[in-house]
UniProtKB/TrEMBL annotation:
UniProt keywords, alphabetically: Membrane, Methyltransferase, S-adenosyl-L-methionine, Transferase, Transmembrane, Transmembrane helix
Protein name: Methyltransferase type 12
Superkingdom of the organism of origin: Bacteria
SUPFAM superfamilies according to UniProt: S-adenosyl-L-methionine-dependent methyltransferases
Residue stretches spanning the membrane: 7-25, 52-70, 76-92
GO molecular function: protein-lysine N-methyltransferase activity
BP GO annotations: methylation
Gene3D superfamilies noted in UniProt: Vaccinia Virus protein VP39
Amino acid sequence: MTQAARFALIQLGAILGASVCVFFLRLPALYWALIAGAFSTFAAMRWHDRKWWCLIHTAFPLFILLAISFSIDPRWYLAAFLLCWMVFGGVLRNRVPLYLSNSQALEQLAEQVPQGARLLDIGAGTGTVLAWFMRYRPDVQADGIEFAWLPWLLGRIRLANSAAGWQHGDAFAADLAEYDVVYAYLSPEPMGLLWEKAQKEMRPGSLLISNSFDIPNVPPQRVCNIGDWKGSRLLVWKI
């Protein structure tokens, strides 16, 4: 079951349970939000593996109550939904949020990329990696692919006058065979699938580099500490 489905089921059960309690006990609306938050938080402690999920479950009913308390035009909710979809569309498809590589990570990445290599950034966000390589490593042919529409559009504008290849689409539909280095800053969820794809498509001797996220049961050949406040690492596998 996906995280989104799990979240929806927990919240639905908590909201229904809180509604029954409030109806029979004739409690104020604030109690509904508190009871629903408590129900969903306890459920999240059992069914979700990250502590921050508990915070989301606790706050969600309170935000619902707050939204209902104000006379907000429904079109604002539609606009917020569309904006979130345009920015985080990859979460729904491949469970990949928007992560942006910082300058420390890019400097470490550049040290791993051979002279004259062809690099693909999958889940390329707003084109940060490509713009950096165009500026500091023009010997590298850097391409990127991004699924979410708004980051892709920003990247298209950003890279309009560069030699970088910029595509809109599903990163897992891209052909990896023609690249010497594939760089990924995704999430823990798709890393196993990415490894299977890399083994099938990438040439022997090419490099798969992940920012921060491991491949399950496949130790990297090389680990480079980035030295940022998040304790990030570059993990390098040679195919």
